[in-house]
Amino acid sequence: MSALAHQRLLIVTGKGGVGKTTVSAALALGSARRGLRTLVCEVNTKERVTTLLGRPEVGPEIGSLEENLWSVDVRPTEALREYALMILKYESIYNAVFGNRLVGYFLRFIPSIQEIVMLGKILFHLREKRPDGSWRFDRIVIDAPATGHAITFLSVPQVVLDTVPPGPLATDATWMRDLLIDPKTTGSVLVSLPEDLPVNETLELHAALTAKIKIATAAVVLNGFIAPRFTDAERAGLPPELAEVARVHELRAHLSAEAETKLRTLPAPLTRVPRIYQAHFARAAIEAIAATLAPLLDGGRP
Amino acid sequence: MNPIAQALATKDVLVCVGSGGVGKTTVAATLALRSAVEGKGSLVCTIDPAKRLANALGLEALGNAEMPIPEKAFEAAGLKPKSTMRAMMLDMKRSWDELIEKRSPPDKRDKILNNRFYQAMSTALAGSQEYIAMEKLWELRTQRDYPLIVLDTPPTAHALDFLDAPNRILDFLDNEAAKWLLTPALAAGKVGLKLFSFGSSYVAKTISRFTGTETLQELAGFMLAISGLNEGFKERALQTRALLAAKTTGFVLVTGPMPDRMDEAVYFHTLLKQNHLDVAALVVNRVHQAVPQAQWAAAARLPDPLKQKMEATLQEAEQLAAADARGIERLREQCPGTPLIIVPRFERDVHDLKALWETSQYLFG
Q1: A172-216, pLDDT tens digit by residue?
Q2: In terms of CB atoms within 10 Å, which of A161, A242, B10, B326 comes out highest?
Q3: Are A48 and A23 in contact (CB under 8 A)?
Q4: Would an 8 Å CB–CB cutoff place A166 in contact with chain B?
């Protein structure tokens, strides 16, 4: 069984700058290609998925990119408004209540209200059904924030449950948490790079996600992998100015192998994504990564 | 004069800002090291719990108290510092607790420390880390006499958070609307009538549909307990703002050569300028260097298939360097008037004081 074939919610995270967005875009593209209605969510950031896929930006409203593929940049103000409207039903009441300074104050003081409405919006779409009873989205890919912020973001249902006494917010936090910790529904995809810091952070992130938040790690992606190229004999015959070039290459290949060994201790399959050398990182690169990640998605449906 | 050297000579606070994963903490440590070696005693206050930095500084671990860098770490690196360098790591929860312990009246202390809203505020509330970093800076600046303090900042997801977060926390703690709400309660020394009448009002009913009424009651309890501290919070926040804007404070904006990081740097730069804060330099870290012509020439003389392998390797390096160079050019256009400092990518980690020192050679030209 492929590692990511069955989960409906994929949470892509890792240290800043490891390539979470490109991996998210590639996983979403691959899922859509397999006939799954797929939504890729960015979380309150500068929208990049659409640009990487060569499409115009969609903003905070869900927009269609191509067959079976939708994208949204989830932002707190819009998400709060949607959430409130869902409960209050009427725009006029929303404006009367949320326009109130005092209300604005209380909403900001309730811990992590921004995070809970953003996560709430994403998980709402995960539960949303079409008139024929099928899922509106078969799969949702979250391009989650980097390590520390991801942990804060994903712990938010639990934080709310610990802080807020029973009430509608606590009720919502409960089903949200239950969806996140169900390994049949949700899996994290940890993205790493072949360098010390990102690798160690991946190991710590795995520990935090599984032990603290109880989100299962479904796959590990080692991005920027560099394979060995020069043999020792070849290196011995090089002039000094090139020997250094070969040494550096082999050092990087060595770091890649070392990173792989460390990351293989995690209880989830590891996929190498070779380092891509392109001056303009765009759709072609995403297609190449999607092809590399194909084995993770093949052979099943959620 | 090199802009970083000038900043080191004329500033007594340097704040390293930028997105995560660009080597901000290393740059901060490098600045403090250089300063101490050249005779201006320094303290680097980091946020990053990376044990490696502690080890690079010859320490077992960094904690919430300032630790001097041991002499033998300098000796091992062949350095003779003219002054002392100290390092610490900001522990958010500890710093909040210490702040409350120091500032709150004894009868309120435990009430605050045990309140669920306090727990959430001191650990999980967005902006909390930024606020306490500012409090720490104020404390270090006013209660100690380090000639130079280098402050590393939390890796903000959003540039605005760092400048805005202290205000957000202050607003939580000392809000006009909330004061109006709690005034009778404050006077009576307990949560009183107004909250009760508030509880039956239309707006309160609507809020409680989201949160439950108990939340509002508990929140009021927390506000009441902490209200005596607000003036102090506000006063120090104002002083910190003034400190950040002072002529003797400089910002070092650190970025990497990746396009997304550079976009963030430009945005950050604009914000700093808008807030009239002095950007001493923009450091582009880990930049890929162009392939020297001599290497191409030497590669052409190699036999096949070694020649193909080598040319493929050089081609890859060339592409990375070209992408970085284009990015840097754009950065230069978009941040006019701010000196740009390029630090090349090293093929090894900064794992000891010597490597930190070597990094400083690039920062200082």
Answers
A1: 889 999 999 999 999 999 999 998 888 999 999 999 999 999 999
A2: A242
A3: no
A4: yes
CB contact under 8 Å between B177 and A101, yes or no, is yes
Q: Does some domain include residue B182? A: yes
Give the domain extent around B183: 92-141+154-247
Chain A interface, mutation test: which of B169, B205, B210, most A Cβ atoms within 10 Å?
Answer: B210
Contact B21 A17 (CB under 8 A): yes
In a domain, B131, yes or no: yes
ipTM here: 0.83
Q: Find which of A81, A93, A110 to mutate to test the B interface (most B CBs within 10 Å of its CB).
A: A110
Is the CB of B295 less than 8 angstroms away from the CB of A277?
no
Strand-by-strand arrangement of the A9-14 sheet: A63-66, A69-74, A38-43, A139-143, A9-14, A186-192, A217-225, A270-274
- Across the interface, do A105 and B178 touch by the CB < 8 Å criterion? yes
Residue B200: inside a domain? yes
Cβ-contact B28, B151 below 8 angstroms: yes
Residues of chain A contacting B197 with CB distance shorter than 8 Å: none
Q: How do residues B117-163 score in pLDDT, each as one tens digit?
A: 788 777 766 677 778 888 888 899 998 899 999 998 876 655 556 66
Q: Is A76 on the interface with B (CB under 8 A)?
A: no
Q: Nearest to residue A255, comparing CAs of B315, B348, B351, B320?
A: B348
- Per the document, the length of chain B is 365
Within-domain flag for B234 = yes
